Amino acid sequence: MSPVARRPRFVAGNWKMHKTAAEGGALARELVAHLGARPPCAVALCPPFTALEAVRQALDGSPIGLGAQNLHPEPRGAFTGEISGAMLAAAGCRYVIVGHSERRHGMGEDDALVARKLRAARRDGLTPIVCVGETLSERDQGLTADVLVRQIRSAYDGLAEAEARETVIAYEPVWAIGTGRVASPEQACEAHRIIRATLDRVVGAGAGANVCVQYGGSVNAENAPRLFAEPELDGALVGGASLEAASFFRIVAAAAAVV
Q1: Looking at 72, 100, 102, 134, which residue is catalytic?
Q2: Catalytic residue check, 172
């Protein structure tokens, strides 16, 4: 269990396309009240762009971090409807989600674009939460390791270990996102081991042990304790269960309970 003690736990809520500015501010204030001045582990909220300012105000003075759900790889330009990392940093963001499967598969983002976005986040002082994971078809074909190795290699090739250490990886099996299906702790643990071993090969020996790797995919207050009992899981990227303060608080508490 020693790897868990070396890596702090981190739970982030991905609100996706939910919550207006007023709703987001209200939820953030409720979470601040639940978590208090000293949350039991690192916590971040990733609301839609339109709610960033309201949530930032609600989190003012709180250790809870603010994150965004996407960014454009270029710092500026004629990219209608896009947001740069510098804009997010100016809005108070510390984190940004990169390469979520809903963007990879719904918006056509490929590995090369995800790699550019990771570097754009680093350029603009943001911590990227880099999402990787296989589809159900890929898992059924025994391709999980191939997919994870490809995604990690593409994203991290050329990064120094110090740079990699300042990123977060979220393993999100596509077949478990929003479906109610959850990878078993054993499946999640094996995927995390593949991710860490690939980081060792791509970035350098020991890199895998120093990067925070979350699990995401229908995480809720009921299954979180069982998932977090696995030593390879450093936290969670939470979707639907982050939209209600009490359930998200219970997930955070579960992450911090295993030492």
Answers
A1: 100
A2: yes
Among residues 69, 209, 198, the alpha carbon closest in space to that of 129 is found at 69
**Residue 231, domain member (yes or no):** yes
Q: Is 218 annotated as a binding residue?
A: yes
- Any domain includes 5: no
**Domain-located, residue 8:** no
Facing residues of 131 across strands?
170
Q: Domain containing 122 — which CATH number?
A: 3.20.20.70
pLDDT tens-digit readout, 179-208? 888 889 999 999 999 999 999 999 999 999
Q: Is 106 annotated as a binding residue?
A: no
Q: Is 239 annotated as a binding residue?
A: yes
The β-bridge relationship of strands 235-238 and 127-132 is unpaired
Burial class (CB in 10 A: 0-12, 13-18, 19+), 81: exposed
**In this predicted model, what pLDDT tens digit does every residue of 64-117 receive, in sequence order?**
999 999 999 999 999 999 999 999 999 999 999 999 999 999 999 999 999 999
pTM for this prediction: 0.95
The residue from 102, 172, 230, 232 that is catalytic is 172
- Name, in order, each residue with C-beta under 8 angstroms of 31's C-beta and a sequence gap of 6 or more: 43, 45, 64, 245, 248, 249
Q: For residue 111, give its domain range.
A: 14-73+81-257
